Amino acid sequence: MEKHYDVIVVGAGNAGLVAAATTAKNGLSTLLLEKHNLPGGCATSFCRGRFEFEPSLHELASVGTAEHPDSVYKIFDGLGAKVDWRYEHNMFRAIVKGKDGYDVTLHSGVETFCDSMEQLVPGCRASVRALFDLVQKCNEAIAYITKMKGKPNGLTMMLKHGDFMRVASHSVEDVMKALQMPERARNIINTYWGYLGVPTDELNAMHFLNMLNTYVVDGAAMPYHRSHELSLSLAKVILDAGGDIWYNSEVTEFLYDEGGAICGVVANGKKLYAKEVISNVIPHNVFNRSNTANIPQTDLKLANAREFGISVSTVYLGMDCTMEELGVDDYTVFVMGDANPRKQYDHRTTDGLYIVNCLNKVIPDSSPAGTCTLFFTIPIFGSDLPSDLTPEGYKHYKNETARKYITDYEALTGLSILPHVEEISIATPVTFARYLGTPDGTIYGYKLSGWDNLLSRMSCEKDEYTIPGLSFCGGHAVRGDGFSSAYVSGDMVAKRVVKRAKGGN
User: pTM of the full predicted structure?
Assistant: First the structure.
């Protein structure tokens, strides 16, 4: 007997989980398919020895608090997904090597942040404060566009929201230079580019500034039980609402009807049918698992024109002493060979950027008593790895990568790390390619830069992919990369599907 659903969601990553929870909560029969035995994709955890590691989440933006909820908080609260949020108000420590380098720490709160920047770069306060004023003006414009259901009055936009019109098409560097912000101040603030995977001379200003603003205003958020808490809470919502979740169920084929509309998928050798399919799987993989005769040429050309986003290598360390005994004072430390984000990006395989986190700073009991965990994150493309690696060569490459960054960090900070390592696990783009199934192991979907920036995607969303009944969500979709963007993406796409199912357009 054929199984029919209102909605099939493919992939239980962040966006897929929110999408399935939203459709199920709204009364649509929903099936979520996931190739692994756990939900979450990168939003999970894994154990080595007596340690449970957070594999990917550094800190969440756009969460807010119960008193001042932001988009992510509203999504989880609206779905009834319970999360124990914890907050970090030290934004980051940034260490730049070399004679012209610096070692600075920034804190949240707009005025505190501006005062700190003035102390670090005398004369910059006015331009930094103007940056946050600009974000507020842009948010007002976005609220107006939302109120007008994406069809704002052109004259109103020019007269009342001219700043948004000017910012929307420019890079972070363009906007900061227009505000006459000193280079040193720009470089310090732009340290966060690593969280979005695109250097700030390419990165759309709106995307970056919104992230920066939420970190400064409310601080960074973390779930108490690591990112797996987020995934499990959403999975519970789906099941409680009567939805189905099938684990160990990889989709091997997408099905289309005679009119070219998507009508289902094949998983575990079974044909499963639905009126709507929401894919948390990158379009490249969807099209590769479809009869190409069913894929419009415009859709294929768009997918092939896009550049894959960056991946990372990550070193996870379980330490046999506490963070206090180790001498760690910071939750997040960015280490850079040069202050300039473009040079950090271009030199990523030699002396670019890496990030060091100690979860115990935010969640003291996140590891066994008398221990702590560290993880090192190095932005890198899968194509940056040596192409001739053998299995033994790959093992050597991983070990040398770990040793290189640990010893570099020891030399910069004076900490003694290697003698206290009890457990170590090392991931590379190869790891993420195997686990996520993404080309080159990208963790950021399609790169948000140039012609393919956030605002361009949003303005052309209805023309992006044209197969009836098929929607995309996640890092490769309109909202782009990162946990918060994925949750927003899943929410937006699912609400449109619900509206169509209930007779709307």
Answer: 0.94
